[in-house]
Amino acid sequence: MYMRPRTIEEAAAAMGSAGALALAGGTDVFPAHAGQPLDRPIIDLSRVEGLRGIAEMADGFRFGAATTWSDIVRASLPPAFDALKAAAGEVGSIQIQNRGTIAGNLCNASPAADGVPPLLALDASVELASAAGRRVLPLGDFITGYRKTALKPGEIVSAVLVPRPAERVSSAFVKLGARRYLVISILMAAAVVEKDAQGRIARAAVAVGAASPVAQRLRRLEDDLLGLAPAEKPSSRMVLSHVEGLSPIDDVRATAEYRLQAAMSLVGEALDRAAGVL
Amino acid sequence: MTVSFSFTVNGADVSCKAAPQTRLSEALRRELGHTGTKSGCDAGDCGACTVLLDGQPVCACLVPVAQVEGARIVTVEGLGANSATGALLQRAFLARGAAQCGICTPGMLVAATALLDRVEAPSREMIADALGGVLCRCTGYAKIIDAVEDAVSGHVRSHEMPELGHAVGAAMPRLDGGPKVAGTEQYGADAIPPDALWVKAIRSPFHRAAFRFGNITAFIASHPGIIRVLTASDIPGRNIFGVIPPFADQPVFAEDEARFRGEAVAALVGERAAIEAIDLSRFPVTWEERGAVLTIAAALEASAPQLHEKRAGNILVKGHVARGDVETAFAVDAVTVEGSFETGFVEHAYIEPEAGWARRVGDRIEITASTQAPYMDRDDTAAIMGFPPERIRIIPSACGGGFGSKLDLSVQPYVALAAWLTGRPAAMVYSRAESIQSTTKRHPAVMRARMAATRDGKLLAMDFEGDFNTGAYASWGPTVANRVPVHASGPYQVPHYRARTRAVLTHCVPAGAFRGFGVPQTVIAQEQMLDMLAEKLGIDALAFRIRNALTDTTSTVTGQVMGDGVGIRACFEALQPHWQKARSEADAFNAKAGHLRRGVGVAGMFYGCGNTSLPNPSTIRFGLKPDGRLSLHQGATDIGQGSNTVITQIAADAAGLPIALIDLISPDTDLTPDCGKTSASRQTFVTGKAAEQAGRALRQMILRLANAGDEARLELSGGTLRVNQGGTIRTVALKDLPVDHHEYVLCAEETFDPPTSPLDANGQGNPYAVYGYGAHLAEVEVDTRLGLVKPLRIVAAHDVGRAINPALVEGQIEGGVAQGIGMALMEEFTPGKGENLHDYLIPTIGDVPPITSILVECASSAGPFGAKGIGEQALIPTAPAILNAIHHATGARLTRTPATPGRVLAALKARPA
């Protein structure tokens, strides 16, 4: 079965069939079936109306689920989205960015998904559509574990929602990989920093990817940065306990021990960049 | 479910009937015949299948054909007519030598076209960003960037054929390059007949397992389209193959027990659609996993399971070279260092997975497949089929990268057997996972060594022990074990020397030939220890190497005195100005505080061309046709390195005839005499020498026709030969002359086998007629917080004797450097893990820094026009030069490769305070 629904409702309904597999950009579905038949029922989301594009709403920004990484790289967005744009430009290659979608990255729920840390740091939420209507979950509640999400049968992601950033917010994303392009992250960090009128940190959000089954915010670090003076580097405030909540694993890319050590550097760099002191 | 989809390809309306989820790459290749779009991974990891979809580059392997309904697709074949810049880029790629094997070229060209159609004058960084999604394993990307920059500037070099007598030394574009840039070159999977059956192997999921088949007849009956299942019992000849006949031990199909993960136990033969739809987990086989030994240490334990009955202690073979008195030398008042080093499996990662097909022709079988060794394939397949060799014909397809692994059989016995038993053409195309699981790797090495020098800096002694994990079967393990002891000294005078090696059998994928046969591993130990010794002596690392370098009149560790053409000192001296400048720049950079440290390292190498003390002849046939053109039967497989071009250049100048008159007859065991295998850096040297001799012989025959002396000038035009000797012209009408059974009026056939001598019990003798020499300088930057190493620049000096084609030599150097960078910093395969090109990482265009090639020409009287090999030499010094540079930058010594960020950070922490 290969279905090409036209509306979000049709698509959601189709996702209720047994074993159904959603396919948009194909950048995760096809690699997962390299050398194997692709014989599950496929729900092709590429023709669903209203699923692609970025819209500015009264309360924030709405990224249609099928918005590609290239769409995001090219979009004109406030500086709070610089981290997301930087992450978009680091997804695979231009060929992948031209096809891969924002919601696909979230639904694939890889610990190393490039899009997740910046979206977590932006307090993004996920809009889910089903026959029953729409529901919205914070991103942190949507991805529930290693390659697990809160998606239910008969449901698709319709959009990713980001609340309108305040004034004086900037952001940065740093990716660590063993080569320059086409690389799965060893580790990545995204930071969003809001300053008050005096240039002190009024709010900080930091998320680290590939160091736990799901990318994580470092809440205690965020709290410890409040009120930091303009000239001071956020990295100078970091202590090892700030990253100890992470639970990295050993894999072909790096050891857990290395990831924890590198997290200190990477988070510091992301924060310093976001704060404009690097 | 098949649906008809309409879209345009290269401007033409097409209608394609396919299942909607069919990959666009497959739809283009299979349904629409656009085989210029290559499939390298089916996962978006290699970018070879890049096409333009409504003007945007995408991986065609990730696009379901349903999604291109109504879209505009442009493939490499249509770039010229359907883009503003494609044709210019194609010319620039050809002129620059940006295509070596050519398998990535379609993806590169399409990605570059997408950029240049949009951006008129992109920066180098923008070019890298645009091409970052396409992997190339041959070129090191340097000539690709050059070609794109040429296209941007509009200064694309014109390529005229060299003038008479000037073919040798001309940086002419490769003769077989046109189809590579046009997308019309045919690789192993590109010309499979549409009616061919498909063959799919059933492979062991365990490192070691006993197995038992269930009801295969019932399986076939319940799977329409599956015609047969092949197992060991179907093999008419012997179920054994191997590149070194006395050591051959690998079964086509395992019997009773599989010895490595990925070993074939059976193969399905059927209609393509049926094979592709099959769920292999339903094949009736039960596995009983058994305890496996995966490391050298485990395999050497007394209680270890024995891989092969006749290989006691899991030792496949031992190698040994000894000279002088090592023990006494270490006992004297000498400065000594010692160290232990370890390397991992390295995957060849050519972008073309193994592929080919066979057909039965009467009582013969013809096999068209990607290979480096047609005659070896012929003889081994014949033994498997129980045929005399003449009943097998090997027609090598274009080869999308080999680097050593396509010396061994892969698809050949399976397609031969399937075609023979069914009477229909049969094809097999490995998936990337199968390619990584089942084909040979570089041997992991565990090495221990000590070195001694006198206090005034003369090398005194070296004692080396190396164990090499050779996997489950012999493959080229004996070659590695025997080549390493000859080379472990490096290109230096070492009066007291002992090197002992063992190839150790394990339940891993067989390790075989990979560019350097063990020597790249060895230099990681030896060249780092030279630096350790120089540091201890307080001598500059480069000066220390120059002081101890081999010369024409000094002896190698096997007691060989070359007499001429020893260019290692010249290579080191060529690096001297770069060395001093780079070291002082690094020191200046490091004077600033910060987490970034820079360093400069150097390493040297020598490498014997051809087989070690074993015959390896090449035969070239060169004929003059009645129409006044020449046929060159050139049997050296061109796997991208350029033998089609280089051998022709040599033949032309040796004959004193214009290269434009030569028609190439490329390898085919029915048409070309045996030129041996493309390995051991032997084709330019050995086949080149045969071509030189054949060229000179043909010239003598022509001169005799006209009773002219060697100084005469030959002209061929139409069917007329004009021999001009000092203004006296004699004319011969060629069509009036009788022809031989090849239809030639004159034909020379010459064989060259390098003069070597056997090694005695202590490994003393003349193992090679010629060595190539080289030295690399690496500048790196180390991020000491993250352990990230970034190469900034490589300067590579290579003594090639005579650069027959300097552009191709540079291409070999740049590609070798890139593979050396990969080996140094990122490449390691762990059996059972990461059987794809996103876990197994090779350098991308952003990982290879600028490379400066310095060609040194210390002619060897043994080589054609003085030439030596370069293929493997180019890779060998890169990794140790980088590792020495890391040490210079940080004081950290990396004894385990690859130097991944984690290992570098650990080494930084382990530095003495």
Strand percent estimate of chain A: 25-35%
How would you state the average pLDDT of chain A, rounded? 96
**What can be said about the biggest beta sheet of chain B?**
7 strands, mixed
Q: What is the overall number of helices of chain A? A: 10
How far the N terminus sits from the C terminus of chain A, by CA atoms, comes to: 53 Å
Our measurement of the CA-to-CA distance between the termini of chain B, rounded to an integer number of angstroms, reads: 69 Å
Widest beta sheet: strand line-up of chain B: 8-10-6-17-14-15-16
> What is the radius of gyration of chain A?
19 Å
Strand order of the largest sheet of chain A: 4-5-10-6-7
SSE class of chain A = alpha+beta
Please estimate the helix content of chain A. Answer: 25-40%
Q: Biggest protein-protein interface? A: A-B, 44 and 64 residues
Mean pLDDT of chain B: 97
**Helicity level of chain B:** 25-40%
Q: Strand share of the residues of chain B?
A: 15-25%
